[in-house]
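Thread: Newbie trying to understand structure tokens

Hi all, I'm a second-year student working on a class project, and my supervisor (Dr. K.) asked me to get a predicted structure for one chain before our next meeting. I've only ever worked with sequences, so writing a 3D structure as a token string is new to me. If someone could post the tokens and maybe explain what I'm looking at, I'd be very grateful. Here's the chain:
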Amino acid sequence: MLKILIADDEPLARARLTQLLGDSAREVELTIVGEADGGIAALDAVDRLAPDVVLLDIQMPGMDGIEVARHIAARATDDKPAPAVVFVTAFDEHALEAFEVQALDYLLKPVRAERLVAALARVQRLRPREPKLEEVARSLGTVRSHLTVSERGRMILVSVDEIIYLRAELKYVTIRTATREHLTEESLSSLESEFGDRFVRIHRNALVARKSILGFQRVKAAAGEDGEAGEGHWEVLLKDFDERLPVSRRQWPAVKAAARS
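---
Reply by user tm_fold:
Sure, no problem. This is what the structure looks like when written as tokens:
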């Protein structure tokens, strides 16, 4: 029996899917385990209810369905695989090409009963566990509002708006907010590619949120054995945060230009 979660911010759309699923139960063995009216609520419901399938609306306020699906995939473990995601969308035909190329299933609003049955039958047959969501997100130009991080055996969301800087250290990237640090295994280069309009690279191992930059301070180099001092370097001063981060000589022109823009 398929356990199904409905995630849509529109009550009428959820009611419509509930009705269609009730009609579809004659052809596909299923049960509705819950509903969610937004993206973050959907992630919470996935953690609590462990559905087999999420009927996921794409266009939701706060966190859209593409981002929700990416977080669902990121939370999967060997003991708790990700549910299959069937997107529910009003996107036009051109945008849907991205889903078709990656073999992700979708339902076009208004949803038809026979199309819903076909999608659920496909889930039963294939049970996709690793949807290729990154390619879809890039092709549609969607950017996450949160990062998923694992802490003490549970998955939590960190708002990108709250991140002051990202710094690569060994195999992890440290996510620094005003209150604490988190760790992620996502690479600094992939984070820069996705959030390059919000962060600036100040060093090969660090990105700083543009809105967190207060200014810069020149730091004199210590004198060497010959008594001569080196060139020194620049450091980033951060708003409402005491820590200072060094700017590499290579990145200084780009950092200075970014601060002026």
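A couple of things are worth pointing out once you decode it. The first helix runs from residue 11 to 24. The two ends are 56 Å apart (CA to CA). Feel free to ask follow-ups in this thread.
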